[in-house]
Amino acid sequence: MATSSPLVVSINNYSYNNVNKTTNVDDDFDCVKVEISDLDNNCSNSTTLSLMRCKTQILHPFRKLLCFIGWRPFGADSWQRSSVFFRIINIIYPIFILLLLLFNYTYEIIICQGKLNVRTDTQKTTTTTTTVTSSPTEHDLTTSLHKNQSAGTWATLQPGITRPHTTNASLTLIHAHAECGHIFTTYILPDIFHCVAFIIGFIHFRVTEGEPMYSLMEKVFIHADQNVRLSGTNRAIRRLKLFLLIGCIWVIVSVATHALSNAMNDFAHTLIFRETTLQIVTEKPMRYALFTIDIICLLISNCIHMAVAMNYACHCEMILFYCKAIRIRLEENSIHLLEAMKRILDLATSISQLNSSASRMMSILIIFFLERSILGFILLVVNQIFQVDMWIYRSFYTLVWLSILAFCLAQAARVTSKCDKFYRISLSMRVYGYHNATPGELDGFLLFLSKAELRVKLFGITIRPGTIIFISITFFLVFIVLLQTSIISNANSFL
Fold this sequence. Notes:
By secondary structure, the chain is mainly alpha-helical. Helices cover 67% and strands 4% of the residues.
């Protein structure tokens, strides 16, 4: 299954000066020395050089990313792969990654990560101090309520502080404003989607070891049109490098956005730590330690998002490049219909592979990205905490999830749109003719394209540019109606 770069095989035969003429046949094989080495940059074949560049600049960084998140075994390309050390590491490390993910799922529920409650986390609160020495009045309960609400999302009554004569009704009211709401839909359900995507990706890459991507690259580079082979392959490599760079920037920005959210709360998680002055001083190292572990867990979690998105986007880009090479030759009338049908059938096979495990992982995470994007957009619009750091956090949170959602959907829609051009070309060929092809052959080619299934699917639905535009416009219209009917309320009279 493991792939390797083009190899040079050098065979040197050595002869024995034996007087005895009855040499054993097995000795002939013992006299053969085989030296295998990677090709260097002096190779004259441009396709081979392009594949080497693509493997060095694209596949190697991607494989390191897969090793980091536990989807690819360490030492997979080493001759010591079957050693005891690598076997132990490749068993322990994925379990360690899974434990970190489980810690991240639990920790974000405990601290209400991101402050995603639309009702409580978008309202400006005031902090006042009162001394309760007798039975509470209505003013005292109101002041105490505001104080506990501003203490934090999970803030509860602090141990050691006596509030005599506080009624059960007031305690219920205080806890209702202090609790983290919508835990299942905001945290648990997206975490389930993320965990399922991780398991599918682990099984997929451990079995295939990234072979489909490399085989698709070989196929695309070999069948590239001679007229645009050098410039086209260089353009494809630059495009894939740009995808990896954008993915790294996305991971950094997403982690920085989360760090900003914790910094605004002074890394204080009131469910774990008490808010007395002495304990804040003594427990600061523990706060920072938990914050560091949380950042590491979030880095791994977002690297999983990046790995799934980059795998899907790179597959789509290679299919687009392959599709363009076939379409150019059809438009130039420089390929026979039978050969074109073989290439298109091969293209359909590549799209079918894209619609299998890669599409399932991507579909699950698309739901995750969509939920975060919609929630972040609503929080940004209805935010009433007029602070610079809060506006920066809300803006970047929305931008982070909306960008990766739009990127993945755009790649899928591009493939479907470009493949639809084959059918339009076949209609033109049926009208104006094609070489010496008979009308019956052109009709057969047209029927073949109608049954070729050159469509990219997510959730089992064909993704087209028109579909994405229609859904986006519908969402904005519904959101405008919700604002106008005050179902989603905002203090800004302009909105």
